[in-house]
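so my prof wants the structure for this chain in the C-alpha cells format not the other one, which i didnt know existed until like an hour ago. anyway here's the sequence
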Amino acid sequence: MDRLKNKVALITGGARGLGLSIATHFFNEGANVILCDVNINDATKKAEELNGSAYYMDVSDSVNVNEIFKKVKSEYKQLDILVNNAGINGFENREDLLSDRIKVNNLQSKEFAEIGKIKSHFDVTVNMTDEEWHKMISIHLNGTFFCTREALKIMNNQDQASIINMGSVLGTTGGPSSPHYSAAKSAILGFTRATARELASRNIRVNAIAPGYIDTDMTSSLGDVKKLVKSATPMKKFGNSDDIAWAAVYLASDESKFVTGQTISPNGGFVMSQ
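here's what i got, hopefully its the right format
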C-alpha cells in the first residue's frame, strides 16, 4: 500500500496508543514518520521499528515545539501531515474519582426509583483545582495550537498538506466526570473548523477525528465505568486503535482531497449525527 508514499508525517503523542497506531498505519502506507512524545525512550524505540525519527516534545511548551519544528524543517525540508494527538484524560492517578462516580450513579438510580427524585450529586467542577484545569487545556488545546502554528511555517510553502486534530465524542456530548477534558476537546473542534476555512485556499486541509471509547492505555483507568459506557453504546463494545488509525489514513491521503473542516467520529453509535 502506498497511499502516503514519500509524505512526511509528524504525530504528537506518538509513542503509544492511538498515536503509535496511526504512525504504524502511516508507515505501512509509505510515509516517513516522526514520533514526538514526552516519553522519548519509547518514542525512539518505536521510531526505529518504523524507520522514522523521534523527538522529545512537550506540546504545552511553545519554545520546545518551535525548536522541534525547526529541526524537522532542516532535516526533512517538508511536512505533509500533522496529527495533533498528544493528550491526557485527567484521571491519571485519580481512580478515586472513578469509584466515586460509580457510587453516585448507583445512588442516583436507587433514589429515583424509591422517591422519584435525585438527592446525591457528583461534584467535579467545584472540586477541580486550577492546576488540573490549566494542565488539561495546556496540553490539549494549547498544544494543538502551538503545533499547528509551527507546522504551517513549513506547510505554507507546499502545494498541499493535511492537519488532523484529535477530538472526542465528549467534545460534543460533554462528560460529567471531565468538564476540563470536554471543554478542551470541544475547543479543538472549533479550532479545526476555523483553521479549515482559513487555510482552504492554500490547499491545506484541516479535519478532526472524534473517537468514541477506544481500548487504549488512556481508557484502561476507567475501571467499572467501562460497563456503563458499553451499555450506552449501540454496538456494545469499545473500539480499537485501528478504527481510529484508518480514519487518519483516509484524512491524510488524497482520497479525502475534497474534505476539510469535518469531524469523523468512529464511536460505535455512542453519538449519532445527521
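also thought this was worth mentioning. The mean pLDDT is 88.
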